[in-house]
Amino acid sequence: MTQIPPFRTLSLATVLALMFWNSGMALGQSTYSPYSRFGLGKLQSGASIAQMGMGQMGAAWTDRSHLNTMNPAAAAFLTRTTFSGGLEVRSERIMEGDSTTQGELGGLTQVAFALKRAGGKTAFTFGVQPRSQAGYNVSQILENDVTDEYQIRYFGSGGLSEAYVGLAHRWEGQAWRKFKDSDGEVTDSVRIITSGTALGGRFEQVFGGLTRSRTIDIANPIFIDTRVQTDEIHRSAGFTVGLVREQLLTAQFNKDRKLVSSSLLRIGAIAQIGRNHNMNRATRWASWQALSTGPIEVDSVHATEETFTLNLPMELSLGADWELNSKSGARLRAGIEWRQARWSKVSNASLDPGVSWQDDAGFSAGASFTPRSMDDARSGWERMTYSAGYCQQSGYLLINQGAIQTQAWSLGWSLPMLGSRSGSSINAAISWNNTTAGDSSPLIEKGVSALFGFTLHPFFKNQWLVPRRYD
Asked: Which domains does the chain have, with CATH numbers?
């Protein structure tokens, strides 16, 4: 008999080091979107890979094995300590008339932890995830009577990350289910959990930087070109609170008094409380001359430093989720979610001319299906959870053509690991995105994302991947 050597476990210090290394990765360029040139960059929902497959829902989405990285209250429904993380590979195509530009990129997604005792009702969460992303390289050619033809080029990179720490607690409602014989006499009773209510909150620190530049390249060599570069440092801190209510709707028992099927309804809410966002901006104007060896800086004309304080609005999300567990072990889930943030109340002083903040509204819908439970499944296809979702967002910023609008369709898969008795799983999702600035906008952005990651647990007193012996 050959014994497979045991797996090595990661120390807490190693995992924390990986987490903060990932926070540095989030600051780099991770999008080619031309719409990330404005505001705080392209905002991210904060959804985990398992949530991406369900249309990025988070208000009422809870799972016993997967961590909800949007609603701080959802961690109280986990069965034990949980780690979530992964990576993303993305392809973006920018189309304007007959012109098309395409590029590929990738990087790590968020790293999230929930520390929870098995059977407990309180969870401690912490992690880091992208808050916004910026990365663009676009240009346009114009003409006037003085300089004839000239080109304006816009380039930017960077992004904002969010580190957080939170706490969640769950309260349960119970009832006795009575069983009667043919004569109507009570012969037995079983205590069941009829409801669960979880409250949670977390403290968040947003940090990062954005670098933006605008270059005017004049074709006539007698004119000197101009470059304006802006470096921004962003900081803000605030709180997010969440609520999840789970109610048992129906329950069926077999002749042995065991629960064989049930249906649940969940409602949830997330409120990201408004906060002050501090921005330090350094702007530098410089003159450039095009030579045979390349552009060279001739003179630094002017430099300024400015400080802005943005009163960010409260972001509110409301959602509902329905779950059915059948006698055959199949599980069906479906949910919807609505989101809103009144960005129009924020001052436009920090924005470019012609750009303003716009109220943001969003909608998500998703469904998932698991053919059989772990005990009844005969193959990986029957153990796997399949999900599909749709998400749309309109607003946040209003540019010349109109409000920025994004639509996303997604498919997801989650496969429990056979080598682990703890319920760890492999998660994957594919998302198709379409972004415009209204029907009149000539610029269309289309993207495809492939996400891959793990959900691992528990963390203490066990190994994430449990070794087995084979004869």
From this structure: 12-456 (2.40.160.60)
Catalogue the E-assigned strands of 326-422.
331-341, 356-370, 385-398, 403-416
Contact partners, residue 65, CB within 8 Å, separation at least 6: 78, 79, 82, 423, 425, 455, 457
Distance CA 316, CA 329 (A): 35
- Residue 315 near residue 339 (C-beta atoms within 8 A): yes
pTM reported for the whole predicted model: 0.84
Rg (CA), the chain: 26
Query: SS3 for 27?
Result: coil
**Closest by CA position to 416, among listed 377, 388, 449:** 377
Containing 315, the helix (H) or strand (E) segment is strand 315-325
Residue type, 311: N
pLDDT in tens, 87-136: 888 888 887 766 777 777 877 788 999 998 878 899 999 999 999 988 88
| 373-383 residue pLDDT tens | 777 777 878 88
Task: Check residue 18 and give its pLDDT.
Answer: 44
Q: Do residues 278 and 234 touch, judged by C-beta distance below 8 A? A: yes
At 11 the pLDDT is 44
Q: Is 269 exposed, middle or buried (0-12, 13-18, 19+ CB in 10 A)?
A: middle
Residue that has been written with the tokens 């998302």 in this structure: 431
How crowded is residue 23: how many other Cβ atoms within 10 Å of its Cβ? 20
What's the rounded Cα separation, in Å, for the pair 405 and 385? 30
